[in-house]
Every structure is written in structure tokens, then in C-alpha cells.
Amino acid sequence: MSLQYATVQNPSLSSNDVLKIPTLNRFYNNMPAWLRVSLEKGKGLTDPIEKQHALQCGKLIQFNSAKLVRYLVFDVDEMHPNTPTEYGHNCFLNWYEAGLPPPQIIVRNDLNGHCQYFFELETPVSVSDKCNQKIVFWLHSIRRAMTIELNADSAYTHHISRNPFNPINQTIFYNSVAPYSLDQLSKNLDLSTNYSNQKPDDYLGLGRNNDTFHTVRFDAYSYKQKCKNCDQLHSFVLSRCHAVNAELFSNDLLPHNEVQNIAKSIADWVWEKYTGKSQHISKKLSKEKAKIGKKGGKVTGAKQKKNNTRNRKKALALVADGMSKAEAARQVKVDRTTVNRWCKEAKEAEEKRILARSQNSTFFDTLFDQETLQP
Q1: Closest among 282, 281, 243 to 262, alpha carbons compared
Q2: Which of 179, 194, 231, 340 could join 120 via S-S bond, C-beta 3.0 to 4.6 A?
Q3: Who contacts 57 (Cβ-Cβ below 8 Å, separation ≥6)?
Q4: What are 179-205's pLDDT values in tens digits?
Q5: Distance (Å, rounded) from C-alpha 340 to C-alpha 192?
Q6: What was the pLDDT predicted at 115?
Q7: CB contact at 8 A, 102 and 173
């Protein structure tokens, strides 16, 4: 491989030398100012603490901000199928065997050979409820596809990672590759998966707020018909949000005020716009109805054109038989001026046909004469 990784020896923040490495310095600067950490795997996360102290003592860390994705991290526990067997249980080369760009940072567990890949994005992606959801779904599809290609853990939550500044039982590898755009990461990936509005799983994995919202909203759709007012719906949605928060994020619960905001957003929207028929009262629905109406108008116009053609032929036939134009108009139930126009157009068309026939006759006569004169 032409790409070379360097190894960090004892990457502790106690020494400022580690921050002289550009890749690790960017990682440090991109971290939230306050973050949650876990001192031991399986013991849950602490309350948010100051960044430098958190990175000095934490074994596991919250590597992205709550609503911004700067790093895509993958938990690689299994060797890629294409890796030669002589390498043993080595997950370090999965990115290479998959034909993907190299991660900027690789954290390898010295005890079992498992790795975590850190891919840095040049522009962070917002995953808040107010951001452009098309970009969020694009990010989601890229992360899904990369998980498959890397043979990474599909159950990984993408919220907590190993701490690259913790030297205990792990080796840190880094390179000088610049941060990636989403377009660069998706270059060799199959992103053909279609995401459905009816499947909550297609929206999950992008953050606690996002996962709670897209899980509970489907419950709200079915429960709305049982409610007499919005307050009843809001009470139900709030209880479901708390339940989902406790179930999915027991080690890193959403704050109470954020759960309340999610519940209010769901309840207000569902009560005001959801019709109970998998549609909602919005401009989108109006546009769909407009399309249907436009299609119906096209059908009506085609039918009217067919009727006009039939009436025109009938009127011209009656006039040709000697009937007056006024009487022919009454017979086919159209205005007399319309019959006059039809007769004029028919006369002009007949004159054009006669002229064209005579020109063709002259051309063929000339051609016959030329052929007969040839030796």
C-alpha cells in the first residue's frame, strides 16, 4: 500500500506533543466543549464534563456534538472476507479490502485486534429536526453502505467511541489524509436502497433526538383517532417519548426539556395536519390533487377534440349534400360561424392537395423523360 499510517505512542493529553499531530489536533478541536464519557465499558456515561478533563480520564467518549455529525465512526470486530488468512484476526485492513478511502484515525484494541475507524467530514452534517432531511438521509445511506462494506457491527449506535487519547490497551494509528466530503465517501458505494416514510427503521441511527422522533411519531398517527383534543394526544406522546428514551438510551438519556420539545413537535403536527389516512393537510397533498385534476382535464380535452372531429365531418358531409350551412350548424348543434370556418379550412386543404398532386405529376413526367433520353 502506498498510504502509510503512523503510530502514536502513549497518546495522553498530559503531554502537549500529541496535539502537534494535525490529525489528532483537528479531532481534539472538533470535539464538543463539554462531553459525556464512560470510565469503564458497560458502566454508563457521566454528566457532561469539560473536554480536556473528559479526554484524560474517559475510556469511552461522545465524539460528536448532539446535533452535528463531524466524524463517522465504525466498530469493526470481524475481519473482512477478502483479507488473507495469514494476517490472522486483523481488522486493520478492512477498509483497504473493501476499496474504501482510508480513515484518518484507527483505534485498535491490543487485546483482541478489534478496530474503530474514524472518518472525518470536511463539513459537519446537521441532524436536527429543522435541517435538510435529504442530506440527513444521504448521510444515513452512506453510513449504512459503509457498515456493510467494512463488515462492521450493524448494531453500533454511532454515539460513543473509544478515546484516542487513552493509551491503555490500545494503539492509535493516523495518517495525513484530508477530511472527506460526503460525495467522496459515496463514490464507490451502492446507495440504491430506497427509504420509506412508512418504515421507522429507515430513519434510525442518526442521533437520540432523531431516533426518538421517528419512533414515536408512528404511535401518534394511530392514537390520534382516540383523542378528543390535542392535550390528550400530547400527554400520550410525551409518555411514549420518555419510554423510548429510557429504552433506547438508558446509558445516555436525553434531557427532560429535549424530550418535551420532541413530544410537542409530534403532537402539534399530528393533531393539525395528519388526517388518519397516511396523508396530511399540506401543500404537498394539494399538489397531488392538482395533478389528478390536471390529468382529468387532459382526458376531458381529448374527449372534446374527438367530438369536434366527428361534428366537423358530419357538418361538411351535410353541406356537400346541398344543405345550407345554417341548417348544418343546427343539425350538429354548433355555431354557424364554426361551420363556415370548417368549410373554408376544407376548401383550402383541397386546393393544397390539388396543387401538390399537379407538382408531383410534373416531377414524375420530367423524371420519365430524363430516363428515356439516357443511352
Answers
A1: 243
A2: 179
A3: 37, 39
A4: 999 999 988 887 765 544 445 454 555
A5: 60
A6: 93
A7: no
Classify strands 34-35 and 49-50 as parallel, antiparallel or unpaired: antiparallel
The list of the chain residues with pLDDT below 70 reads 1-3, 10, 15-16, 41-43, 84-89, 129, 155, 192-207, 251-252, 276-306, 356-375
d(CA 175, CA 9): 14
The residues with which 6 forms a beta bridge, in sequence order, are 174
Buried b (16+ CB within 10 A) or exposed e, 109-127: eeeebbbbbbbbbeebbbb
